[in-house]
Amino acid sequence: MANDFNQQVIEEFRANGGKVGGMFEGGNLVLLTTTGRKSGKQVTSPVMYLKDGERIVVVASYAGADHHPAWYLNLEANPSVTVEIGTETYQARAEIVEGDERDRLYARMVEVAPGFAEYQAKTERRIPVVALDLQPA
């Protein structure tokens, strides 16, 4: 089950100062906590990211599924999120990136993690790119 998998990654991340093994080993991983758009509960998801100046960028690929991941739908409804990078926690505001900037950032993510090219090829939807402006918590 995906939730069990995510929970194991979250626990490993927090126990090891942001370092995890398995499929995410060596990658830039962030824990993104959104507010459930239906439940109102805090929901944490491990997501790969890349730095873009003062902000970080995440991609709502859902491994190429034909629908958006729940965390993306949650931040569409409420763009105030919490971000954990390593041992640091930040409050952030999510902004969906469009147009040429979206394409540039998606291409950068593909350079860092080539699997993202396969994800876009697997789906008809245009995979969203989200910029997170961090503020200390």
**Mean pLDDT across residues:** 93
Strand order of the largest sheet: 1-2-3-6-5-4
Give Rg in angstroms.
14 Å
Estimated structural class: alpha+beta
Count of helical stretches: 4
**What's the overall geometry?**
globular
Question: What labels would you give this structure?
Answer:
about 140 residues, about 30% helix, 4 helices, 6 strands, about 35% strand
Provide a descriptive summary of the structure in words.
The protein starts with a helix and ends with a strand. 32% of the residues lie in helices and 34% in strands. It has 4 helices and 6 strands; from the N terminus they run H-E-E-E-H-E-E-H-H-E. The radius of gyration is 14 Å and the shape is globular. A hairpin with a 2-residue loop joins strand 4 (80-85) and strand 5 (88-97). The chain has a 6-stranded antiparallel barrel. By secondary structure, the chain is α+β, with helices and mostly antiparallel strands. The model has no long low-confidence stretch (mean pLDDT 93).
Provide a short characterization of the protein structure.
This protein is an alpha+beta fold and 137 residues long. Helices cover 32% and strands 34% of the residues. It has helices at residues 2-15, 70-77, 99-112, 115-122; strands at 29-35, 42-52, 55-59, 80-85, 88-97, 129-136.
